[in-house]
């Protein structure tokens, strides 16, 4: 859906840009309604040939990593709509080439709101996502129904419903914008009034002593946007109250929509015009997304997929407190080595993972983090143009 909508947008509203290629893993003769069938290819080399920029929107950690690395080999910048990739291999990739998440999905929309807030003198304290519905363990029957109704895949529908996607989204925001979390899995407060909830979150940030990421579940008002809870100079308090943003000291800035593919063009233009990274997972992340078992499972049980599956859901966590966790993005066609219980955080000792480039990257980064901790002194340890679309 993202690729279809983005291509139609570029064709109809960006007359100075051209779609030079569209990568697919499906047979080329299997498309009946694609807007540019003559640009479809199964070859990464053909995708990047003649392109000035790659848009990676597959939602696939393994395939996406391969595409991004190949683009970097020829010096192309990459815009992603793939938070799953960002929180799994994105920090490694950020050190190898230009990669940025696009505006439109919640992380990019929060990053754009962050930039606007800073230009107005606000000090972000909380980066907030909104979630309309949450069920940690939805049924296959329900997910099949909603998948057909909404026109998206069952695994995407499941990852949205069980909370995995919002955890992933907030982790990339935290890593990219220098924020933390208050606890594993985030707070996820119920909210009937965003201003009141924003004031509570602002007080929590002040007590914590640093900005944090989280999400809310609104009731009585729409849940389609993102928000920041901010502070500002005391000397501006009267003016801000006059501007109808409240009496302070906390101010909630709301972006009431995120339009996914319709906004990606803004980031494409940003990059092609020489602008910097909007958001990526940073080269020194502090947060990750672990896999939490939804039910009891026996040794030898096959894991078809982690993200969007019915065996696990994702939770945000601190990397230094969970060094052995398996990033949920790595769970694909693998087997359990031992039984697990509901609510258990999966570690590398629990699973046999298939070899992949993504796994190599994660293991390299894991080893580097361990070496950094080992090397710290004892005192430190005791302190606190033409666009190609890859679908």
Automatic annotation (TrEMBL):
Residue ranges of domain Oxidoreductase DRL-like catalytic in the record: 104-264
Domain of life: Bacteria
Protein name: NAD(P)-dependent oxidoreductase
Biological source species: Stutzerimonas stutzeri (Pseudomonas stutzeri)
Upper taxonomic lineage: Bacteria, Pseudomonadati, Pseudomonadota, Gammaproteobacteria, Pseudomonadales
């Amino acid at each position: 859906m993202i690729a279809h909508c983005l291509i139609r947008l570029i064709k109809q509203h960006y007359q100075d840009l051209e779609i030079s290629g569209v990568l697919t893993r499906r047979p080329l003769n299997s498309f009946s309604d694609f807007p540019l069938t003559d640009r479809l290819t199964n070859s990464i080399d053909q995708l990047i040939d003649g392109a000035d920029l790659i848009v990676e929107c597959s939602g696939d950690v393994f395939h996406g990593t391969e595409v991004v690395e190949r683009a970097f080999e020829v010096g192309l910048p990459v815009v992603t709509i793939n938070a799953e990739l960002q929180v799994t291999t994105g920090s490694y990739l950020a050190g190898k080439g230009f990669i940025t998440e696009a505006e439109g999905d919640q992380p990019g929309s929060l990053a754009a709101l962050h930039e606007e807030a800073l230009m107005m003198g606000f000090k972000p304290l909380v980066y907030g996502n909104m979630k309309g519905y949450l069920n940690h363990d939805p049924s296959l029957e329900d997910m099949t129904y909603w998948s057909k109704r909404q026109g998206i895949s069952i695994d995407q529908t499941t990852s949205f419903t069980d909370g995995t996607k919002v955890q992933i989204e907030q982790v990339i925001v935290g890593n990219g914008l220098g924020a933390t979390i208050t606890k594993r899995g985030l707070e996820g407060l119920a909210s009937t009034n965003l201003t009141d909830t924003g004031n509570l979150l602002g007080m929590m940030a002040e007590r914590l002593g640093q900005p944090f990421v989280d999400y809310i579940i609104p009731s009585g008002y729409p849940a389609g946007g993102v928000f920041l809870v901010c502070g500002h100079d005391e000397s501006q308090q009267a003016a801000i109250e006059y501007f109808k943003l409240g009496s302070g000291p906390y101010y909630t800035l709301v972006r009431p929509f995120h339009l996914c593919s319709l906004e990606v063009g803004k980031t494409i233009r940003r990059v092609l015009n020489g602008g910097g990274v909007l958001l990526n997972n940073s080269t020194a992340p502090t947060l990750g997304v672990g896999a939490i078992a939804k039910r009891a499972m026996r040794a030898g049980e096959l894991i078809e997929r982690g993200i969007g599956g019915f065996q696990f859901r994702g939770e945000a966590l601190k990397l230094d407190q969970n060094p052995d966790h398996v990033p949920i993005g790595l769970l694909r066609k693998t087997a359990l080595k031992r039984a697990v219980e509901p609510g258990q955080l999966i570690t590398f000792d629990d699973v046999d993972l298939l070899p992949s480039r993504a796994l190599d990257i994660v293991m390299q980064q894991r080893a580097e983090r361990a070496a950094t901790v080992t090397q710290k002194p004892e005192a430190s340890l005791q302190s606190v143009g033409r666009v190609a679309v890859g679908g």
